[in-house]
Design brief:
Length: 438
């Protein structure tokens, strides 16, 4: 399900053009946009023609606390109008131009695209770069999804449990720079806060039965099963009780030593239930997963480019055993395994389904954010090693992908989802003035 947002809609016009036709087109647009899921609209129903109309519209949209506004150039219009709206709102704007109508008596009827040109020039020269242009009869739903991303991050509360994993300096991030860039807040918790969290025996028992139903548990003992169930219940309650949008976890080395197992299997289970949990204390990985979820991608997961075959042109998108268990390929044996951390790993162990996929990484370096984007297709494979993984062939040759990653210093975790969601992230990056690495 996509992130719910509040969207303002306003249509500008001028009576020297065919504003009556613009009214009819605007009425149809109002019907069409209400078919799009999870949007609360504030619609200025009449055409905005005079400066006073724009001022009143801006106040109404502002009081509704919209996340963004779509400004339609129903016809060409006064240049004041967009600036009056922007002066009050200071939110992302879609400049929407309509297709020109057939000429009537040798006169251009709408001149809508010229209105978009006027608005874009006024915004650009006044210092506003948070606009996107759409020409056509339908709203740009990729722009809407970009607003979902922006809103999800702005309203997010991400927890970090412990710290980043030992030696993973590249997963460090500047919290206040992140707040400045996205508006999200990060709360810190100690590992003991989760390990000591109280859960009921009934909750643990229910999780044990759930794990038995999903996984082959012959590779672990009863104590390990109980610990996975106990930790699964702890994760759920901890995230819910602290009202967290996502949680980044320092999953090693302390978990195996102090709790008796690593948290991988519990994280696999919880992620299949739409909880965002990032391993190795990777907050920006959690941000990336949260953003994928905002645009409706199913159960995002973190993976490494672990095996890169330059001759056969593929990479293995692997991790030690933490991917959501609902993404199992349905063919191999899906199991819990203790191969990791000296027998105390207790990780999920399965091949993931093969399908079209896309990847994302929000990644900061030297005070600036970048967006790493790629897409590709999964290749069926046999279960040949431990952990959770699938073989992927990218749209670009793997040599090019690897070259981009290492030359730009992109962190080694990527958020992976099935389906292509890259267009919305390109628009989002443009609105934020972030570099796109693609």
């Amino acid at each position: 399900m996509k992130k719910e947002i509040k969207l303002g809609i306003v249509c500008l016009g001028r009576k020297t053009f065919d504003f009556e036709a613009a009214k009819d087109l605007y009425a149809d647009i109002q019907k069409d946009i209400k078919e799009i899921e999870n949007i609360e609209y504030t619609i200025i129903e009449e055409l905005v023609i005079e400066v006073e109309d724009a001022q009143a519209a801006a106040e109404k949209l502002n009081s509704a606390n919209v996340d963004a506004v779509a400004v339609i150039s129903g016809t060409f219009h006064l240049g004041h109008l967009i600036l009056e709206i922007d002066k009050v709102l200071r939110k992302p704007i879609l400049l929407w131009g309509l297709n020109e109508l057939p000429y009537n008596g040798g006169k251009i009827r709408l001149n809508s695209v010229c209105g978009v040109n006027l608005n874009s020039s006024n915004l650009y020269k006044s210092g506003n770069r948070k606009y996107h242009v759409n020409i056509g009869d339908k709203i740009d739903e990729d722009w809407i999804d970009a607003i979902r991303i922006n809103t999800a991050l702005k309203n997010a509360k991400i927890g970090i449990l412990g710290y980043r994993a030992k030696g993973f300096f590249n997963l460090s991030m500047d919290e206040l720079n992140s707040f400045d860039q996205t508006g999200l807040l990060i709360d810190h918790y100690e590992l003991s806060d989760l390990m000591n969290y109280q859960v009921s025996d009934d909750e643990v028992k229910a999780r044990e039965e759930q794990l038995k139903d999903i996984f082959d548990i012959s590779g672990i003992n009863e104590t390990q099963l109980n610990k996975v169930a106990n930790l699964s219940a702890k994760f759920k309650n901890f995230i819910d009780d602290n009202n967290l949008s996502a949680l980044a976890v320092r999953c090693w080395p302390e978990f195996a030593d102090n709790f008796g197992i690593s948290p991988c299997a519990a994280m696999s289970l919880l992620q299949s239930e739409d909880y965002i949990i990032a391993c190795e204390g990777d907050v920006e990985g959690a941000m990336s997963m949260l953003a994928h979820q905002a645009v409706g991608a199913e159960t995002p997961f973190l993976a490494d480019l672990s095996q890169v075959d330059l001759e056969e042109d593929y990479a293995l998108l692997w991790h030690c055993g933490v991917a959501p268990c609902n993404l199992w390929d349905g063919k191999c044996n899906i199991a819990l395994d203790s191969y990791f951390a000296g027998g105390r790993g207790v990780t999920a162990d399965f091949v993931m389904k093969s399908d079209d996929f896309s990847v994302l990484r929000f990644d900061s370096a030297q005070g600036k954010y970048r967006v790493f984007l790629q897409k590709g297709e999964g290749i069926e494979m046999e279960k040949e090693l431990k952990g959770t993984y699938f073989k992927g062939r990218f749209e670009k040759n793997i040599n090019e992908v690897l070259d981009m990653v290492v030359k730009k210093g992109v962190a080694h975790h990527i958020s992976v989802v099935y389906g292509d969601y890259t267009a919305a992230f390109e628009i989002f990056a443009d609105l934020k003035n972030w570099e796109v690495i693609r």
